Amino acid sequence: MKNLTITASPTPAGPALVVAGDLDHTNARQLRRAGRGAAPSAGQVLTVDLGNVGFRDSSGLTALIALHNDALAAGADMALVAVSASVRRLLRLTGLDQVFDLRDRA
Amino acid sequence: MSIHRRNNVRVTGRATGRTIVLVHGFGCDQNMWRLVEPALAEDFRVVLFDYVGAGRSDLSAWREERYSSLDGYARDVVEVCEELDLRDAVLVGHSVSAMTCALAGEAAPDRIGSLVMVCPSPCYIDEDGYRGGFSAQDIDELLESLESNYLGWSAAMAPVIMGNPDRPELGAELTNSFCATDPEIARVFARTTFLSDSRKDLAKVTVPTLILECEQDVIAPKEVGAYVHGAIPGSELVTLPATGHCPQLSAPEATAAAIRSFVSALGR
Amino acid sequence: MSPAAGGCEEPGTGVPGTRAKFSALLEDSAEDLYESAPCGYLSTMMDGTIAKINATLLGWLGLSRNEVVGRMRFTDLLTVGGKLYHETHFAPLLRMQGHLGGIALEMRTASGSRLPVLVTSTVKKSDDGEPLLIRTTVFDATDRRAYESELLRARRTADEARRQAEADRERLREALAVLQQSLLPAALPDIPGVETACHYHTASAMQLGGDFYDLFALDDNRSAFFLGDVCGKGPQAAAVTSLTRYTLRAAALHEPDPVANLRVLNTVLLDRYTGDDPRYCTAVVGVLERVGETVEVRMAAGGHPPPLVLRADGRAEHLPTPGGMLVGALPAARFVPVRTTLRPGDTLLLYTDGLTEARTGPQRELYGDEALKSFAEALAPAGPGRVIDALTDLLRSFGDGLNDDTALLAIGVPARTDPGRRTSA
Prior knowledge:
The complex is a heterotrimer. Chain A is 33% helix and 34% strand. By secondary structure, chain A is α/β, with parallel strands linked by helices. Chain A has a single domain, classed as 2-Layer Sandwich (Transcription Regulator spoIIAA). In chain A, strand 2, helix 1 and strand 3 form a beta-alpha-beta unit. By secondary structure, chain C is of the alpha+beta class. Chain C folds into 2 domains: 123 residues, Beta-Lactamase; 246 residues, 4-Layer Sandwich (Phosphatase 2c, domain 1). Chain C has 13 helices and 17 strands. In chain C, a hairpin with a 4-residue loop joins strand 15 and strand 16. In chain C, helix 8 packs across helix 9. Chains B and C meet through helix 5 of B and helix 6, strand 3 and helix 7 of C.
């Protein structure tokens, strides 16, 4: 199990989070907090880089849904970047690939 | 689990001789009989065992409900006799086990033909004119003594105490573990022993009975020996030239001689 | 520091003053050491009669030599408890071993107070091995006994706390088991013309699982079923499971349309759990309708692994529902219908992802959809009972690779029992 690290940085298009490590029920709150801290404003896009993330249970998905809800509520949008094949499979199974904006690069 | 393994049953001596079952009391295990066993084994078939909870018995078979009354210990005695299909055996019970053997004799009259009671006491606590020698507080003191000596007892000792037939080097009982028992088990046995009152069971003993007492015994003083003798019709009382509560250790020759002459006089 | 002040110089090497002190020490006779040693000494005959005792011990006990020597036995110095312990443990051990060390006893002093002591005894034997006398050393253990009493008290407190914790844990386990059972049907109902079987694997007895299933009759010809997995675990997940189960049951009775039923559930969950605390589930919902000797199955799925059908001819096929979304996560969620016909000998299998997400083999790889399909193909044709039995064995074989709850529900149409089919099998 790899420790979770989240780094946040501002970009012209909006805040960017780079997440690395394994997400599960013990640490998914960190991602929720980081998203709330990044707080994209109306018209911006919150990008979340998942290039080095493993999902250990459903709590990673829950965090992404919450981030997405927050972004929409603020009039902003959310994009997932560098999504691995296994996370893509999970997003496809749950239908979330139709909801989230999946991009190769930020 | 066979009774053999459960009670660590050992059979020695002359296979054709009359069977004598040596039953240890509270405190230690069948090793209590080590010094009298050779003399008895010359003429008799000698059966030794440990109560469940003592010595190298199977500790996992111990149940508090069963061993909280003397009947539970008596069942061990009867089950050992059944396992070996004994008939007309001589039960030799030390201390509290003198009473256990009396109960066993009542429960299995075919198997048990006579009794030897070594330093018996049917009741340890003074009551209504009866002199057992102790008060209820005294027994609490004993429980405290047990407790303070068990501080050194640890789970690490358990394997040694439980015994390991595959590793005889552990079996050498010449360490303090000879008398060491799981503190829980010892507490129950101590309580059961010293709070028991089997006076009314004495009158039910109908088999030939030998009572052995010591000249000086703090646990079973001579008044108690006389009481037991008076309560069992036709019993024989022998006072051994010994002090303490364990004549089989302090005066093994005299103890063995008394048992031999009693058993030899029984006829076949 | 001057050498003279040290007092612990090597004898003969230092100043004259040191040498004088050392000589004075040599005057300390063995007799004086015996009498005034910082511990008690005592020699007894084999019957316990005291033959010799030192001044230290007499002082502790408040007794005179005349009262003791030749008149008292060792056990006379002990409290009653000590006497009993001596007779049942100490004396036998000493007889057997010839030596005994560090035994805790209590002595009774002349004033009636108690003196906790540690006793060590050795039997002195004659040249031909006859025991002659017992030599005993007695240490004052007052402080140590006080410390031990503290330890004992602490241990009793800890034992009590542990017993309490175990009892609490056991009660919690029982409560959880009862709650868990309340989220599942006690038994599947008998549905004419259909065979069913189910299995529920709980990953942890201390954690409520989030998987659920149900099967119930709608009318004479139709029945409804569902199986799913609520996100998360524990009491919150159980609350979602309960809400989900009763919502789906009510919705199916109201309108036997699987897609509509999932929409109702989606609305209910979104309404109950808002933005910050999304609670959702994946689910397959379906309606069975008997048509002659076959059963028509209409299903809808949201975010759930695809159902599998084991055909009577030995094939196994997934019934994919691509694009079906999590239920309760998104306002405009899409749910995808799928239908199939179960003919005699066909079995429909619904499962949660505990099965396909199990880790297997040395590389701990995902078991996966394809492995499950191959497993089903090897099994087919098979009725619900046999399918669930085989999968239960499979789950067991995963060992600790199976770390999630798993629900299994199999629904089949009994195979025709005509002789021709049997011989061809």
